[in-house]
């Protein structure tokens, strides 16, 4: 039973939380499944923005952007964010924002460094995780455990090494389909040309490859490193099989630049700078949500 939150102003709550965690099975919430939101996105030709957050202000901005656009959203914390703030703290923040949101919110933990960390995230209330592994022998047992707890697993299929395609497209697609089956993953992250931490929007996606992959597997497909991708390509990709698009660098850059501008005026109250950063992040996140075609989709999911 994975979690998507509906706000009280809608006249009903989608969430019903189990008793506090006692150290056995993870704390779960009975709601409309997160995977249903992602499958609906793939079926209807739009993508959910997976908005990376690193602190309270960026997490608030992500959810506020989704509410302003009337869109379901993925609030995403990474392994690096957990190293900075602590997994329990991030989980508590995410759970509270999810519970109070006026739109469906999926709480996702990205790039978990081990199966143990992935499980800790689900115990803490995350709806799903992406494990930093492409080994089906590691992924499949974790998938079984997560599924029993009502959570999902995202896996990343690597297709390049040192910039060279490892196999012909026909061989590669067959291997990809086999990987999806063997890993038992629910979401499949695929390489289409994007790279992490790229600030300039110059990368072109391999849209033909995306269409071929989408024809090969019914799984919701994921793109990592979307900040550096040409926007027109993202718009097309969201209609052609991508269901989850990870965005981090352009959002944190907008946040940092706005906060720095306030600090440079001589302001000493950090709330002024962090508040400006939050507004800048929210504005950029709204643009991403619109680009991916998710604006207004929350209404159909109530």
UniProtKB/TrEMBL annotation:
Cofactor(s) demanded: Zn(2+)
UniProt entry keywords in alphabetical sequence: Metal-binding, Zinc
InterPro entries: Aldolase_TIM, Class_II_FBP_aldolase, FBA_II
Pfam families: F_bP_aldolase
Region feature Disordered, mapped onto this chain: 1-27
Residue sites binding Zn(2+) per the record: 111, 196, 224
Residues annotated as the enzyme's active site: 110 (proton donor)
Molecular function, one GO term: aldehyde-lyase activity
Record Gene3D superfamilies: Aldolase class I
GO biological process: carbohydrate metabolic process
Cofactor binding note from Swiss-Prot or TrEMBL: Binds 2 Zn(2+) ions per subunit. One is catalytic and the other provides a structural contribution.
Name of the protein: Class II fructose-bisphosphate aldolase
Annotated organism of origin: Deinococcus metallilatus
Organism lineage: Bacteria, Thermotogati, Deinococcota, Deinococci, Deinococcales
């Amino acid at each position: 039973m994975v979690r998507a939150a509906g706000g009280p102003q809608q006249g009903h709550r989608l969430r019903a939380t189990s008793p506090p965690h006692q150290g056995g099975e993870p704390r779960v919430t009975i709601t409309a499944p997160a995977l249903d939101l992602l499958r609906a996105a793939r079926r209807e030709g739009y993508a959910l923005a997976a908005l990376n957050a690193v602190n309270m202000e960026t997490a608030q901005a992500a959810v506020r952007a989704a509410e302003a656009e009337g869109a379901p959203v993925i609030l995403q914390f990474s392994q690096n964010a957990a190293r900075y703030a602590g997994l329990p703290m991030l989980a508590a923040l995410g759970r509270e924002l999810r519970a109070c949101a006026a739109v469906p919110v999926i709480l996702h933990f990205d790039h978990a460094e081990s199966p143990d960390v992935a499980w800790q995230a689900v115990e803490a209330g995350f709806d799903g995780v992406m494990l930093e592994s492409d080994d089906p022998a590691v992924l499949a047992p974790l998938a079984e455990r997560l599924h029993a707890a009502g959570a999902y697993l995202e896996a990343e299929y690597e297709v390049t090494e040192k910039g060279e395609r490892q196999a012909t497209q026909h061989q590669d697609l067959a291997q990809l389909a086999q990987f999806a089956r063997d890993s038992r993953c629910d979401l499949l992250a695929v390489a289409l040309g994007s790279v992490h931490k790229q600030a300039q929007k110059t990368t072109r996606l391999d849209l033909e490859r995306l269409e071929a992959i989408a024809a090969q597997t019914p799984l919701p497909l994921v793109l990592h490193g979307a900040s550096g991708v040409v926007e027109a390509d993202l718009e097309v990709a969201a209609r052609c099989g991508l269901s989850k698009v990870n965005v981090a660098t352009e959002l944190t850059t907008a946040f940092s630049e706005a906060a720095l501008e306030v600090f440079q005026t001589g302001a000493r109250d950090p709330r002024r700078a962090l508040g400006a950063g939050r507004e800048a992040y929210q504005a950029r996140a709204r643009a991403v949500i619109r680009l991916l075609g998710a604006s207004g989709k929350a209404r159909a999911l109530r």
